[in-house]
Specification:
The chain is α+β, with helices and mostly antiparallel strands and about 60 residues long. The protein contains 2 helices and 2 strands; from the N terminus they run αββα. It is rod-shaped. It binds zinc ion. Pfam families: Ribosomal_L32p.
């Protein structure tokens, strides 16, 4: 049986287990241009949201 060399604190165990429920951010690419985009956010590539242009891509370059 493996014997721990040093005691691991409850805090350190909890910090490790805090990562167990983490998943990758959801949301695929932009339906308009296919660029990676977070869900419920205006596309930073083409400036569309919900199928319509919200901001012009020229403004995004500034
Ligand atoms: Zn887009």
């Amino acid at each position: 049986m493996a014997v721990p060399k040093q005691h691991q604190s409850h805090s350190r165990t909890a910090k490790r287990r805090a990562q167990h429920g983490i998943a990758a951010p959801t949301g695929g690419g932009c339906p308009e241009c296919g660029a990676p985009r977070l869900a419920h956010r205006v596309c930073s590539s083409c400036g569309t949201y919900g199928g319509r242009a919200v901001i012009s891509p020229a403004k995004l370059d500034q």
